[in-house]
């Protein structure tokens, strides 16, 4: 769907130059996707890069056995550094990007990514800031794996979901949580029961409430 220039000026007026906003209105695509929608799969060529306006996208890394591990979340005014890298290097995707909830975004065609870096200083700054944020996210993932126990990582994941959604109750299965933490469903189920006994969560069918 074509984007209204006035909407872009209200949303990005203090971030991007006016000429960039005009190009974004002409070439960008406004999209709304539902929870569970897959934007990117491993092995596919990335045709566009998303800028998230509202909602949340989770970025997962797959191994050779089909297991997934959560890398980071994208929220409002975020973009995906790994997608940008694949675009610039003309590489296939090595990640999965899934809508965590109903999400609105602007899809930017790949041919514009590099062109705008040399043409607009604000876009260059946005791309570099995106790399910096995602680098910090990945450092946090490494810290979690190296320095924190799995139960602490599980609580931290639930807290992150609560912050992203503004809600302490999640419609999520133990299998989905296990995939995001790169472990088994049985381990997550056992940890959740322990956390419930400690009064940190409440469990019901396919729902977890963070206390």
Describe the structure.
It is a single chain. This protein is α+β, with helices and mostly antiparallel strands and 211 residues long. Helix content is 47%, strand content 24%. The protein contains 8 helices and 10 strands. The chain has helices at 5-12, 18-27, 81-89, 110-119, 121-147, 150-165, 174-180, 185-197, and strands spanning 29-33, 38-40, 48-54, 57-62, 68-74, 95-99, 103-109, 169-171, 201-204, 207-210. It has a 4-stranded antiparallel sheet with strand order 2-6-4-5. A 3-stranded antiparallel sheet has the order 1-7-3. Strand 4 (57-62) and strand 5 (68-74) form a beta hairpin. Helix 1 (5-12) packs across helix 2 (18-27), helix 4 crosses helix 5 (121-147) and helix 7 (174-180) crosses helix 8 (185-197). The termini are far apart. The mean pLDDT is 84.
What brief labels describe this structure?
elongated; alpha+beta; 47% helix; 8 helices; single chain; 211 residues; 10 strands; 3-stranded antiparallel sheet; 4-stranded antiparallel sheet
């Amino acid at each position: 769907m074509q984007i209204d220039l006035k909407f872009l000026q209200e949303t990005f007026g203090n971030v991007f130059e006016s000429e960039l906003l005009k190009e974004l209105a002409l070439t960008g695509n406004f999209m709304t996707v539902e929870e569970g929608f897959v934007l990117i799969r491993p092995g596919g060529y990335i045709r566009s890069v998303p800028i998230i306006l509202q909602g949340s996208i989770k970025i997962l890394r797959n191994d050779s056995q089909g297991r997934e591990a959560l890398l980071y979340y994208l929220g409002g005014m975020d973009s995906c550094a790994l997608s940008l890298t694949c675009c610039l290097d003309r590489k296939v995707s090595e990640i999965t990007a899934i809508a965590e909830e109903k999400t609105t975004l602007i899809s930017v065609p790949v041919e514009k990514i590099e062109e705008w870096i040399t043409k607009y200083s604000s876009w260059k700054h946005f791309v570099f800031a995106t790399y910096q944020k995602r680098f910090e996210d990945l450092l946090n993932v490494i810290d979690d794996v190296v320095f924190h126990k799995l139960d602490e990582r599980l609580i931290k994941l639930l807290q992150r979901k609560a912050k992203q959604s503004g809600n302490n109750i999640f419609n999520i299965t133990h299998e989905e949580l296990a995939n995001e933490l790169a472990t088994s469903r049985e381990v997550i189920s056992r940890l959740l029961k322990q956390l419930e006994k400690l009064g940190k969560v409440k469990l019901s069918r396919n729902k977890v409430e963070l206390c």
